């Protein structure tokens, strides 16, 4: 957990140059330690960073960050080309934490499901399709879920949840 305490603020700050100022809305990123240590760090869509550590609190204004398909991999699998991450939540809980990633894609729900189903299965995930959603376990036995919905114009909004 100490590693998360040290790395989380650094990760938030390191991501600051990711968007080049090209997006009206950035990516929301939050990192929380939920094992009683009181740690949290949050990077808002507007570039405002809030860090709350035992004995240290800060509010910092930074440029907006927009994460896209090339900025995220899950066992070596990127998001579908053209996808943009709208929200990322990372939580720690004595080794049982998790990650939740919300993203938009320029392709429909079936294409998103098929993208992940084949690629993650070859990375050792055990997955089952349920309509346009996927559920199962990662290669190391953590719970995995992909939910996706069409939003019109051949586009979709999806959520990946791993663990926690």
UniProtKB/TrEMBL annotation:
<keyword id="KW-0732">Signal</keyword>
<protein>
    <recommendedName>
        <fullName>Lipoprotein</fullName>
    </recommendedName>
</protein>
<feature type="signal peptide">
    <location>
        <begin position="1"/>
        <end position="20"/>
    </location>
</feature>
